[in-house]
Amino acid sequence: MKKYIIKNEKGFALMAALLACLILLAIGMLVINMSTGELFTTSALVGQKKAIIASESGITKIMNDGFPENWTAANGYTVDNNCGASNFTNYNWLPVQNSTDTTTQFAVCAPRVSTRPSMPAPGYALGGGGGSTVSYGYMRYDTTAVGRSTVYNSETKLDVGVGFGPVPIGGN
């Protein structure tokens, strides 16, 4: 068997240059793909943070409005028995106070009396003549605060329990 040795090296430089270009192209595509993925992830995180901050603005609204008689549609609350359900979309959206971002909004469902019992308030009991005592406690209310960022297409719901009181909760 005879061995043939090719002594003509014409075109070797072209093949080496093409191979080097392909390797550099593959590395470049990998870097672009990785950085694009990071941008999408970062964008989603920013949107979620904006939505959570907006939801917290809703909780602040409940605290600032204070009394249950203020938790009405006239004060910006969403009043609907289905408010907070996973498929509910008819919220009364409000802008976040003192914010320059008009695309971040929140909505608050009007708090409803909780099915859980009221919480006693230690040290708040009045005793009267004849052995009668009036106990005081905190009424529990359940609500949902929803925040959204329309730019990042993100939405967050926070189910919140609110205590109001002390109020008379019973006596003997």
Please tag this protein with its features.
6-stranded antiparallel beta sheet, alpha+beta, 172 residues
Helix/sheet category: alpha+beta
Written as H for each helix and E for each strand, in order along the chain, the element string is HEEEEEE
What is the number of beta strands? 6
User: How many structural domains are formed by the residues?
Assistant: 1
Average predicted local confidence, pLDDT: 87
Enumerate how many helices there are, as a single number. 1
Calculate Rg over CA atoms. 32 Å
Which geometry do the CA atoms define?
A: rod-shaped
Helix content: 25-40%
Strand content: 25-35%
Distance between the termini: 115 Å
Main pleated sheet = 6 strands, antiparallel
- The low-confidence parts are none
